[in-house]
Amino acid sequence: MSTEAEQFERISTKIFQDSNAAATVVAEEIADLIKSRSKDGKTTVLGLATGSTPLPVYRELIRKHREENLSFRNVITFNLDEYYGLNTDHPESYYQFMWQRLLGHVDIPEDQVHLPSGTTERSKVYANCAEYEQAIEEAGGLDYQILGIGRTGHIGFNEPGSTRDSKTRLVTLDALTRRDAARDFLGEANVPRYAITMGVDTILKAKRVVLMAWGQAKAGVVQQAVEEEPNENLPAGLLQGHPDVRFFIDESASVSLTRIRNPWLVGPVEWTDRSIRKAVIWLSNKANKPILKLQDSDYNEFGLGEILTDVAPAYDINIRVFNQTQHTITGWPGGKPDADDTSRPERATPFPKRVLVLAPEPDEDILCMGGTIHRLNNQGSEITLAYLTSGNLAVPDTMARQVLSLMSEMEKELDQNLAEDFSLGKLASVLLEELQSTEGDTAESSHIRQVKSLIRRNEARDASALLKIDPSSLKFLDLPFYETGRYRAFNPSEKDQQDLVELLQAVKPHQIYFTGGLADPGSVAGVCFTLLKQALATTASEAWVDETYLWSYRGLAQEWPLFEIDMAVPLSPDELNHKTEASFQYRSQRRQFPLRDSAHKEIWQQTDELNRNTAAAYDDVGMAEYEAIEAFKRIQLSELLEG
Ligand code: F6R
Predict the structure, then answer these.
(1) Which ligand 1 atom lies nearest to the CA of residue 79?
(2) CA 199, CA 13: separation in Å to the nearest integer?
(3) Residue of 48, 77, 149 to test ligand 1 pocket, by largest number of atoms within 8 Å of CB
(4) What domain count does the chain have?
């Protein structure tokens, strides 16, 4: 039975503190099902997904197999989908994914595993898909289907437009889906255009369905699938009405659900400073009036009458929220020396502060908070910009080729005597050949990855130099989890954490700027965030930690909503231009061809828009009108370590 808070939800949705907590429950359900059916001599038919979402479930199932004797001898599996055109030995094929991430670690007989074939001759695809459907039926139908959800709202590869009665078939991948897969394939151009997927109807016929979603990037589609009328433009919404479907999501994927976004619309609310701010800012937007002009009648009309009786009359609440919001704005992100700091986001002392900016990849620091870094530096803070990973996986081959061609041609063009002293050009030629021969394949040599790391390092140096940051302030950690990994397959170890602990201990920062708290825990930013949490837990008893303020920047995709911002740093038009100029240095992160999707912006356009929109949001509620604003949320150490 759903609760009052869930009244807008058409699919039973459970919010877990994090993906591991949810995955434990899913794995437990699957294990119980396998055990109870095995006891009765029955097989269990599992519908499986790939991608980063199910990984914590697979890890837990493997653990259960190893430590709790969970056997897969009586399990039959059917995967949702496979890229069309990829061999089973291609590193990005779902066949490889499944054997590496789950099947190869448990005792399932090979002939009980089924994946759609990505290499069936085109003329035989239709018949092959029909056989896949039939095989599922002959196995007794899917007992338990797990799903992830794409940012298009797809399940399996049923993209928008897929019908409720669709069956297993060949489909064309959506542009957004291909872009999301670009990093796995080292460039969008290498991503297959087609896939074979179970249909919506195939999935709906499963006896139980659990869809999982982690991270802020999924919040929007989860809300639509759960709360909106089902329609074919959002295939996950077609799960509504299935007799046993549940969504298991983490907190960051839940933020757009009405019960989280506007809790006062679904039931009684516990009024805290934050929830009052959230409600009043929402009301100001809804009524299209600045905060100080809101009247009792506005509160009543938009369903917030309760706050007036529970807390105070409109006049008092307005002033309170106005002041709170006003006090988040500061031109002194490192604290203003010799000034009264009672209502400033940062302390005046100590001054200058030691500031540590952590960026998961070399670009997020400047893109997300370049203006703030510039100010901190100008105002005398001692800045360290630490890049946690090399980011080489996100550098397209074309860029590496340009650099290597340059090096190899330099040798040929330059004076021969001079060139003989250098073997660099020769090395470049060898690597160029390698790049040529592995085109489209994602298994690259560590040398090519190194070249790509250097490209990103140099971009980071150029960008920070434009902001007048001393080059010695840049630290490239090149954490090993990234160097030995690939997207969706990062496996951090003790060494990663140790490197971060050493950095923290060397800097002893008064301020740490970080990101990734709302990201998919399997993404680069998500892994870096978990490592930071672990490193802070390890150092928690050291004296400097008590003095550290933790400031979270949200990332490129989204800015904090107004009510969550604790520090807002305004940028003048000149400062914004300056930041944009710095952002131009990240050439390797440019959009790649084909440029079909005009909604997809260059990164400098994204940050520009984000910062301008934040300024506009302040303006809308009646604050001063700034050109642009970078925003931060303060996180208490205890909150971070608990979460
Ligand atoms: C995978 C699949 C897809 C993914 C979805 C989410 O077999 O069918 O629907 O579940 O694209 O991908 P991740 O989990 O990587 O975010």
Answers:
(1) 7
(2) 23
(3) 149
(4) 3
